[in-house]
Amino acid sequence: MSVTSQLCEKIAGTGYADLGAPATAAALRLVLDGIAIAIAGTEEEAIHILAAHFKEQGGAAQATAIGNGFRLNTVSAAALNGAAMHVLDFEPMWMQNLALALPTTWAMRAFNDLMIRHLTASSALIPTAVNFGFGIIYTIFGVAIARRRFG
């Protein structure tokens, strides 16, 4: 039996009583913290925009859109509630600066400017140029590695 199968059997065979008080208390604290953060996140403009979008799409009222006073289909509610939980993510400044070294940071900056903030296409020029620079650097490294490896 593989390690994955063994792990899955262990997880499937674990009941609530097997968890113990410290684990259940930690889980409860995490769930309540997530709900509190989602409620706070619903005050952000990005969540108002996303909530209006999902509400406009319609669908069966199956799940609560936390802090919005209406229900959505389960997929839209999960997406909206998850976004509300993470809209207030605050990283230390050094981590935000470090993220500038990643192409995904620049791609998401352009995406947010265009799709969330509804800015003009010119707002994506700098992030696009930065990602183009990443592409050139990665190509140079790739060619150098290939020359070294394959002669």
Fold blueprint:
Blueprint: H1 3-12, H2 16-19, H3 21-41, H4 45-57, E1 63-65, E2 70-72, H5 74-86, H6 93-99, H7 103-116, H8 125-150
Antiparallel strand pairs: 1-2
Helix pairs in contact: 3-5, 4-5, 7-8
Structure class: mainly alpha
**Terminal-residue CA separation:** 44 Å
> How would you describe the shape?
extended
Alpha plus pi helix count: 8
Mean pLDDT: 90
Sheet with the most strands: spatial strand order? 1-2
- Rg estimate, integer Å: 22 Å
Number of domains: 2
SSE arrangement, N to C: HHHHEEHHHH
- Contiguous low-pLDDT stretches (5 residues minimum) are none
Please provide the count of β strands. 2
- The fraction of residues in strands falls at under 5%
Q: Helicity range of the residues?
A: over 70%
Largest sheet: 2 strands, antiparallel
Write structural notes for this entry:
The chain is mainly alpha-helical. The chain is built from 8 helices and 2 strands, in the order ααααββαααα. It has helices at 3-12, 16-19, 21-41, 45-57, 74-86, 93-99, 103-116, 125-150; strands at residues 63-65, 70-72. Strands 1-2 form a two-stranded antiparallel ribbon. α4 (45-57) runs antiparallel to α5 (74-86) and α7 (103-116) packs antiparallel against α8 (125-150). The protein is extended and about 60 Å long.
